[in-house]
Each structure stands twice: as C-alpha cells, then as structure tokens.
Design goal:
single chain; 212 residues; alpha/beta; Rossmann fold; seven-stranded mixed sheet; 7 strands; 16% strand; globular
C-alpha cells in the first residue's frame, strides 16, 4: 500500500508496520528537521518530508491508500487542563483554545478520502465532538473497526533510558536537549498499537453500520 504517516515524530506508530521497509511505500511528514532526521535514520526506505503535515494532507490525501494522522494533542489533554488551576483555584497557566486541526482532519478524511484512515489523539478533557473509538489511553477515529487492544502502559513519566527501552528507540547518540529528547520519546505511539491498527486496516472486520 501507499501509506501517508502524518506528524511522524521518530516513528513509534510505524516501527512494526514492516520489518524491512519494502512491504509498503511509506511517506512520512514531520515538521521538525532534527526529528525527521532521526526518523529517516531508523527507516531509510521511507520517503521523509519536512513540512506542515496538516497542509500536506489537504494537498496530497488522494495519492494514498492508508493515512495515519496524530495531530498535536496538548491543547486537548486532560493533563494540561488539570494543570491550569492550582489547588486553591488560581490559574497557573493561560487557558488555550483546543486546536480544531484534529476535527478538520477527521471531517476531511471521513468525507473525501476513499482509502482507509486513522486519526489518533489523547483522551480529551471534554466530550468528543465526533465520537471516537477508545483503545487504552487514547482516542482513535477510523473508517474501520479497531478491535480493543491491551496496552501494557506508555511509561509516560519514565526516564529517557526507560522510555527508550519501552518504545524500542535508542536515540542517545543524537545531540539535542534532554527535554526535547524525552518529549520525542513520550510522543511515540506504542509500536504494537500501530501494527495492530494497520493490520486491521488491511484486513478490516466486517461491519454494515456507521462508525460516526
């Protein structure tokens, strides 16, 4: 298949899609050049493009058979919302509008795209505007059924060394600050989850109703 991997990061969701990079034709879009470089090193057979994933999707979605998108999640997250207020009720950080990039992409894919697609994000602090499928600690929107998956845990608050082991990426040789390195690892979707979802996109469960 021709696969578009948006907001690719260092490739957590993509890690187990194919053992040698030859089973699918994969194009990865990542905004930060230093992160794109790590992705390219791990997956040399993929086409890696440094670009705005949201705009790239709009201009190129018809060129692919399967699209995965993981738009930035902080403005939707329960963690950020809870951290907005201190215990005495005072605002600790400025509230922000939840980014509607998430829902723009879901609506585009659900109505215009003819292939299989999946959009992933955190469970938000609000009721979802479009009903997702809940798998582990994340929401997924897709035009196929995602059978539940037992997530062994994201180890979200682990050290860099612990996160490298959990995610299966050794990025110790790359020269950027510890905060960005830890964030790159924390942003990885678990490789087993990525493989599980692609397998279901290739061999979907029979379903005659509507997912939305």
């Amino acid at each position: 298949m021709k696969i578009l991997n948006l907001y690719a990061g260092i490739g957590g969701n993509r890690k187990l899609w194919t053992p040698n990079g030859d089973d699918h034709e994969i194009t990865a879009i990542e905004y930060k050049p230093e992160i794109a470089k790590i992705y390219q090193d791990f997956f040399p057979n993929d086409t890696v493009i440094v670009a705005d994933a949201h705009q790239y999707l709009l201009e190129h979605f018809q060129e692919f058979d399967f699209i995965w998108s993981s738009p930035p999640c902080p403005t939707h997250s329960q963690v950020r919302f809870i951290a907005t207020y201190s215990k005495d009720g005072k605002i600790r950080q400025k509230p922000v509008y939840p980014s509607m990039v998430l829902y723009q992409e879901i609506l585009l894919l659900a109505n215009y795209f003819k292939g299989k697609w999946c959009v992933e994000n955190v469970i938000a602090f609000y009721d979802p505007l479009i009903r997702p499928q809940k798998i582990g600690s994340h929401w997924f929107w897709a035009n196929f059924i995602i059978r539940n998956f037992v997530d062994e845990g994201r180890n979200h608050y682990g050290t860099i060394e612990e996160l490298q082991k959990t995610k299966g990426f050794d990025i110790s040789s790359y020269k950027f600050n510890k905060f960005d390195k830890r964030l790159a690892l924390r942003n990885c979707v678990e490789p087993e989850v990525g493989k599980h979802i692609l397998d279901l996109a290739i061999n979907p469960i029979e379903f005659n109703g509507s997912l939305f």
